[in-house]
Every structure is written in structure tokens, then in C-alpha cells.
Amino acid sequence: MPTFKYKLSANTGPITIEDYRRAARKAVPDMIWAFIDYGAEDLVTLNANRSAFGRYALRQRVLVGNEDVNLSAQVAGEALRLPVLMCPAGLAGLAHWSGERGAAQAAERAGTLMVLSTASSYSYEEVAAGTEKDHFFQLYPYHDPASPTGSLQNGLTSSLIQRAKRAGYKAMFVTVDVPVPGNRESERKRGMGKPPVLTPGRMINGAFKPRWAYGFVKHRRVSLRNLVSEVGAKAAMDGISKQEKMMRPELSWDDFAWMRDQWDGPLYIKGVLDADDAERAVDLGANGVVVSNHGGRQLDGALASLDALPAIASRVGDRAEVLLDGGIRRGTDVIKALCLGATAVCIGRPYFYGLAVNGPAGAEHVVEILRQEMTRAMTLMGVKSIKDLGPEWLLPANTAITS
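Above: the chain sequence. Below: its structure as C-alpha cells.
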């Protein structure tokens, strides 16, 4: 499949991720914006993910001869130019018709990789065929409606794993924090329930976003392509209804152990906020954990990802890689997460903002913004490499330091 052709913008246009967020709000219809940017219930956890970073200040040292800053990292044995992955986020085609395939190409150009969602608007095979590198993939351990026993060890989950193997994905990320869908009231109020509800007013609102509407009508990349073979709105409705029926509240550690046996590459457990759970996952063979509350889209009132990170990193960081997602908007956010024990971070909403504004070029630029901000901040801090970051580089915010 062809690579998307684009050019990065010059100095005009967005220069921060918040700039991209504001521009994205204007670029897509209201119901799509609710899907991209909102979370569960009162948005308590969504907002906590951001505010947690404000509790830390960065230590600054001077006159250290810090000419070159090294941001290079490794995740699952793959070299990255910076410790930022694009995390699994479903239906990227709602933000821009290029969807996950365009975002994965953008990740490659930026020197990183994508974790492709099971709920993607491009299939595992389509993204693999449209990219040069072997990316990672995310697995929702769905129940197969055709299985009379309800066992995870069924055709659907097994087939998803086997398809990812054949397509060349290097690592599997198993999401475990969605036994049932979160209560995303903001989405439901704007028509993005399950299934979505279109009204004349919502259709008119979409028509007033002509660039988005053109891509929506021409390419129809709005369905769950790993679950249905068609594209378009009807296929999207069918896939979302099917997905709802396949959630597994009875998912257990035995199921996780079975998935470990099915996958012979690096395996990560995604959606962990408790150190005991992280330790058990590593004991069962996980190569890494993703400290995550699903971007505040599941249990409202859950711990902020950054607040959960130190205990998990302390418990398993010497045995497994520890990633973090939730609330990353600045290069300094990435630095703070690394100081608290993260190997790397994952971003979701930021690259959706980039896609919504400028397709793959926007997604690439978002990563580039984080790279520039990290490089600048670490130069000012006096840190030469991310390998040198640790808790000693953080201070409590808004507190005086006495000598």
C-alpha cells in the first residue's frame, strides 16, 4: 500500500500540543470531538492525569557542558529515537481518514513505533502492509459469541493473535482494564454512544466541517476493521454492537497466563494501577507493564497514572519495562515520568489531535514537538541522557529548598 505523502508545516500553525488540541476541536464534529477528548462520568480521573504532573518541579544544574542530549530508548528490544510510543487508541479514522496507517507511518518518520489497537479503523494486515517497520499490537481479549462455553480460548482471540503474528508485529500489549465499557456520559450526550445516534442536527454539524466530511464520505474509515470486513457507517454500527457483546467481566489471571503461552514474543499488560497486579503479571511472564487508567475513560475516580507509577516501578522495574500513559502533553511531562521510573511513555489523544488537524503530518509534528521540548528541557536541567534521569531530578512543586 502507498505511503501517505505530506509535508510538515513551517513556523505557521500549531507549535504546542495544546495548540493542536484547540485546532482539532474546530476541525471535527462535536460528536467526534467527544469521542477524542472526553472521558468517563465527571472527568475526575481524566483531569487528575494532567494535574499530577504539576506536583513536581524539575531540578536544574548549570555549567555542565551539556552540548548533546541523548533521548534514545529501547522498548521490547526495538530502538527508538525518543521514549515516546503511539499508544493503542481505537477508531483513529474518526479523527482523519488516514487513521492508524497514517499515524504508524508518522511514528516511523519520527523515530518511534505504534501500538496498534484491536479496535482500529485499519486492520492489522493493512497497517503492516503500509509501513516499513514491525510495530506492536494491542489485544482486547474478547469473548467469542460463537463459543458456547464463553472461554477465552476460542477462535476469535486465537485468530487475532495468529493474524498479528503473521503480519509481523513484534510485541503484544494485552489491555485488561475494560471488562465492561466505561460510562462515557459526555460521548453519549453528543451521540457517540454504543451504537452512535445520528440526528439531523449532528449531520449538519458534520457537514460544516468540510475537510473532515470529505474524508469521511470518500474513505469511510470508521469501522472496526479487525472485527468486520467492510468499511462505512453501517459496518461501524455492526462492529461496535459486536464489540459490546464481547467484553469479558470474568477475565482472570488464568486467561492472562493462557495468552502468555500463545505469544512467543515480548508481552505487556496494559491498564495496571496496582503494584501487586504488576508483580503478578511479571511473575506470569509479562515483559512489561503499562501503568494506565485508560486515559480516564473507564473507572472515574481511579488513581492518576503518574501517581501509580512510582510504586509499580519500585516493585517490578528491575525485572520488566514500565511504560506510562495518561496526561502527557509536554516534553517535561515525559521527563517527569522517566524520573519516576518509566522506561517510556505512550501518547493517545495528542496524536489524534495531530491527525485531526493535519493528517499524518500533524501526528508526526506532535512527536517532534515532544522531542524538541525534551531536548530543550534536559539541556536547561543539565542532563545529558535519559539514562541519567531519576527521582533525584524532581522536587516538590511550589516548595522552598533550603541549604
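Confidence is low (pLDDT under 50) at residues 1-10.
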